[in-house]
């Protein structure tokens, strides 16, 4: 099978973000989605630390350390963008005002449970940031991840074994081997990379997929 | 005449007591009141509870306070950062208690304190480790966790400009926790880049009204020169 690169996955996610959407991109790989947003669409990027209309990284030498993203890297503000305090920022997130957020994950269950903040290792210093607010607050939560760990275990699971970030919150997974919907009815295949059959996918993941819902 | 301006960071926090709870604004270094925190280090108050988004990194700010052994407990959302070694060392040795709070719940609990609310029901964290043992309630089909306000004795915040009545405006994403922490503490101290005359800040753009601010200290910038009328 032909696995998709991180960039190709980011590009695939970007295709599904419509004009006018208010979008939060999680730290790490989801940040790459910004590089592939079509220039002919106006899309509002939100950053949890109080920015709407976040623009790309500044040119070298132009960094302003009062203008950073959630990963604490310097960014810019688009014309028309604005700043607000943390209360308002999380009101946007928790209050259902953000249309789409894109997050990374350790595990996602077929019912959309998300585990992305803690590996459960006893000696880890726990840190959660805005992950739990984003997971349950956005209208749609997209997860962007490789479908398998380095040792080949499926990250799409029947039931998460890592500590949960949110329950039944993920709507879609964009992975290196395909796109999947998850939710109350279970996991279904939206598309697969060439060379991967549904049978092989079921074998590799150990997950029972349900037929995709028929469009009304 | 009411004049909330003070001449030094040390004067601004002089009445800080051992055992105090202190809110400290900032998201990473953006909006962190480094000079006020340094004054707390120099002041010597100990057994402090620090409420902030992060738990310090490098050698200054909250990291310096932790390094000096003044902090008993940290309430924050994200203590694990590059160079957060002072936090990590004290946390692992058991000298430092951590209350980990999802970032939006941290903001909402601070706002609840400032707004005089007794508690809030939040959907964030429901069904996770961070809600274990907490009261929950299903309201209109959705599950919520009961969370209590976070109050503080002091809020140390950073703003771009302030006047002698305590009105403040901020700079870019350095605003973050400043406005909500200002409302939640008994004594809010703002360090500002520029102390400006009353009326200089457009009343339509005041972000923190002076009622929430007790003291203002200008740090590291010359006063704004206003042309004579």
How is this structure best summarized?
The complex is a heterodimer of chains A (216) and B (229). With 216 residues, chain A is an alpha/beta fold.
Give an overview of the whole structure:
The complex is a heterodimer of chains A (about 220) and B (about 230). With about 220 residues, chain A is of the alpha/beta class. Chain A has one domain (about 5-205): Glutaconate Coenzyme A-transferase. Chain A contains four helices and twelve strands, in the order H-E-E-E-E-H-E-E-E-H-E-E-E-E-E-H. Chain A has a nine-stranded mixed sheet. Chain A has a three-stranded mixed sheet with strand order 7-6-9, with no helix packed on it. In chain A, strand 11 (about 180) and strand 12 (about 190) form a beta hairpin. Chain A is globular, with a radius of gyration of 17 Å. The mean pLDDT of chain A is about 95. Chain B has helices at about 10, 35-45, 60-65, 85-90, 105-115, 180-185, and strands at about 5, 20-25, 50, 70-75, 95-100, 120, 135-140, 140-145, 150-160, 170, 185-195, 215-220. In chain B, the strands form two sheets. In chain B, strands 1, 2, 3, 4, 5, 9, 10, 11 and 12 form a nine-stranded mixed sheet that branches. In chain B, strands 6-8-7 form a three-stranded antiparallel sheet. In chain B, strand 9 (about 150-160) and strand 10 (about 170) form a beta hairpin. In chain B, helix 5 (about 105-115) packs across helix 6. The two termini of chain B are about 20 Å apart. The chains are: A alpha/beta (about 220), B alpha/beta (about 230).
